[in-house]
Amino acid sequence: MLLTTSLGAAPVDFAHEVVPILRKHCVECHAGDKKKGGLSMNTRASLLEGGENGAVLTAGQAQKGKLLEAIVSADPDVRMPPKGDRLTSAEVATLRAWIEQGAVWTEGFAFKQPAYEPPLRPRQPVLPAAKAGRPHPIDRVLDGWLSEKGAPTPAVAADATFLRRVSLDLVGILPSAEEALAFAADRRPDKRAVLVRSLLARNVDYADHWMAFWNDLLRNDYAGTGYIDGGRKQITSWLYVSLLANKPYDLFARELIAPSADSEGFAKGIIWRGAVSAAQMPELQYSQSVSQTFLGINMKCASCHDSFVDRWKLRDAYGLAAIYSDHPMELVRCDIPTGKPAAAVWPFPELGQVDAAKPRDERLAQLAALITHPENGRFQRTIVNRLWHRLMGRGVVHPVDAMQTQPWNQDLLDVLANRLVESKYDLKAVLEFIATSQAYQSRAEILSRDAEDKGYVYRGPRAKRLTAEQFVDAVWRLTGTTPAKIELKVPRAAPTAAAVKKPAVEPLLAAPIWSGDLAGGRLPAAGETRSFRRQLVLDADVESAACVVTCDNGFELYVNGKKIGEGDNWADPKSFDLTAALLKGANQIVLVGHNGGQKPNVAAAWFQVNVELKGGARLVPGERRAQGGRPREDGDRRFLGMDDELAERPRDLRRRRQGQGRRQGRRNRLAAGLARQGRGVAQSRSPHGRDARRRRRHEQPAGPCQPDEVRPAAARVGSSEPRADRLHASERAEHARGHRSFQRPGADQSPFRRRRQAEEADVDVARRARALALPLRAEPRTRSGRTQGRRRHRRRRPVRTRHRRPAVGGVHAPRIPDHPLIAMNSPLPLDPSLPEPLARREFLRMLAAAGAATLSMGAPRLLAESEKLVQPAATADSVILIWLAGGMAAPETFDPKRYAPYEKGLSYDRVLSTFPAIPTSVDGVRICEGLENIAQVMDRGTLIRSAVQPDLGSILHSRHQFHWHTGYVPPQTVACPHIGAWMARVLGPRNPVMPAFINIGQRLEGVGESEELKSFTTAGFFGGEYGPMNLPFPEEAAAAVRPPKGMDAGRFVNRDREFRRLVDATPSRDLLSDHQHESMLRSMDNAYRLLSAKERAAFDISLEAPEVQKDYDTGRFGRGCLLARRLVENGARFVEVTTEYVPFFQWDTHGKGHETVAKMHAEIDRPIARLIRDLEQ
What we know:
Shape: globular
Strand content: 5-15%
Number of helices: 38
Largest sheet: 6 strands, antiparallel
Structural class: alpha+beta
Distance between the termini: 19 Å
Number of strands: 20
Helix content: 25-40%
């Protein structure tokens, strides 16, 4: 692990700080057709080109240019501007800082807009002929373009590179070792295309990965300060399900532009705290979000004033806002009302216009239709440009939110857009189209520092850094620590093929709601509309609520006078979040049903609601049924699925279960006694009373709308014996062994109790399966070795853990029958094979048992060579942490910046890096000159170039080292363990005789800031046994583990006995806790053991071959790397090798920085590269 840090200044905002200054003072004479003095400031390239008298500025060197000299000059023949107001000192300072930072310019920006106007409608480009066996449309376009530019065709990337790239791009996860081997062994010519299709078919991985892309684009899942509770409605559930189902993009966009209750969070924007600019009103946010997301138009500037950077005006931004607004709007320029009304118009009337007189919902529907119009090529080009950028590292139009910019290849953009339309707006099809091209499969482009200054030239895909999500997933996969359960409140599973073919529950059967007509022998009239009302009384505030509804042929749903949603396709049930709509007390629910058809026909509806109240009570759907299981025939007055009962609170449920458990226990003991006597048990049941009423209610045949229970079709009513083919996998295993706690309850138990007990059974199976895999016994034993009966009894009882169903947007979704779209709301069974964290109490109990066993060892373990020590199985590999302390910064090592050749007297403010960048063994990754050997092994690991740390005050070096090594922000009131101590404590040694934590190269005495260094080079509150073995000089390590001359086993024992006596007698003993005392004694045991072990030879680097020592011997650091390799080869768990930070000494470069860093490069380059190669072998 290589860690460096660097600091930088905040950049100047070109668009908002520099452009207004140049527009006010310069562009009148130096932009567009006006080039006084031959100087044009229209673009960055023309500005850098200069005028008749040469260059006017040099990027990064403000003092060299003539621009600032003319601006501040008092000479009337030289000063600029020659007339009008002079630049203020603040404006001059802004320009100076901008030039020093490289004169950064928004790509594509020009003061006078070019003649280019992007085409609105789609176009069909003529494709060049295929070349060199590359028939893919993308390759044909690019091959023709490269021929015109005289540029070579990029070479194809290796299989391993392609596999890693496409896996990360499409599903965000590194391929497994098995996948890599299988792909390498595959000899099919189309194996890359097959791989692309297989990755895109992994719907859950695809949805998980692309959620981050869409969250950023749609401003979803925002959290933190800045807006009040309720000021932002998330659309996570709607978005995830849309990705999971691969919803067509035109439908996806329409549902966001003209939203339903599920997707309205995008349109509603954010309600900010306090007073905000008029440009941040929700209506203007809607204008900005819709235009930027779907059209690539930046309306943020135009929401306050006419845009400085493109052609959009204030009226354009307010035109879209007025479409969304439910009240008249006034144009407000820079927070000053203009008195002019804002007209509800959209900016491309060529395709049609919104009718401003229509209600808001109709206006939004019209806008959605216009934006997704087949003739709106801008809508199509914007999204395919985003996807190209995502996969290739740079957009065809760049930046992707500035679609007014001319693309570097218009034909390529149109080929991509046409593919989207041909696939019926299938985004996966576009991703497959790109990923199967030779262009995507080429080697990554090697970037030069001045590439963008001369204009973009396609040379292949660009290497991309891992996103935060990809990085975490990669670490999880490489370390085998992927969580068994993802805490995501969305249904993360699509219906399986088996579930679609043979549903686990009965199909959805709608029940008639025009029951009065049916009772009279009449069918409802075609085209008839009726309203059905229901009052729902709630005793407490609502924690969460959701409903599912459908109607033949259509419906609108209202709650307390507010329209919640509608549907026009009875085969597509709609789910709605009712959390905000339902209130404590009486709630009025109205369902307006529409019957279609050309003649009288049956009309039907299905409605179900789940409500969870604050305090734990729930309304559970449980429709009361008349004899025969059919709904009551009062459909005009009631809703189906609304006849709910209040479920028991957890406390009441627990009490009732305890009573039932005691009664069942008595029955079991009676049954056992009778069985020993050969007599059966006849359970008589009264035909009256509570049990009989419950039994009669639940012995009714299952009706069409019975979502909360699954009754096996062939199961005998009242039987406690389930059909094996209907049981969950975990239940089948226990059923086969006859374990009574996993038998499905009888018919005298409620559906709520049956569902709860099945969940508890799953949890108990998982808990017991984990216990069987533990290295220590989880159950305490008595001295006689028998398990205590009480604890054994507790282990056999189900664990009462509440498991909630998968949630949609934080609302517990009702369980409904299998359906191609909504079956994902079904609860997922708990897989007992998946590992889960141990309960803290259980973990501590086992830890205490392990500690007691350790303390019982007594005297120190001596003479390790002749002793049979128990060596536990390794649970992780060793770690070597290479710590580069002191003066080398990121721009001088692994993150090179703009190169400025070193020269004597070079001003520090001109320097970003005095070392040029060199290529490495990884395409597109470059590091600094002087690290050539490390560059050759860069493909063996991962380079993390970004790290953010808090401001830790003036003692910068040691405090940051403390933070990095411990994870704690100093200062701390307790001693914090070093990362090596954590590994020693949690993982233990790989070899019992080797120290688990060894620190090489850092002196802790006689150096500056030694006390600060000691504060983190420690085991902290873990105890001395987990602390480091410090070896500041690698060549003296062998002597450190050599026993004194004449020391034998007997003297070891005597010395240990005397040491323990002195420790007990010293006054400091009273200051030590028992834990610290015992830990210190165990550390002595470890030291004695090492002194008598054959592994002592690992500490002697002189035993290495001379040529090996030569490769490593660049100084103390290099010899430390060699020692670290020998130690981990012999079982050390964690070794840190440091370059040793000593203030104003070797590794701090306050003077002669370039020369000193060059020496540092030479000291670390060869040893690190050799260490990596040696560890590979």
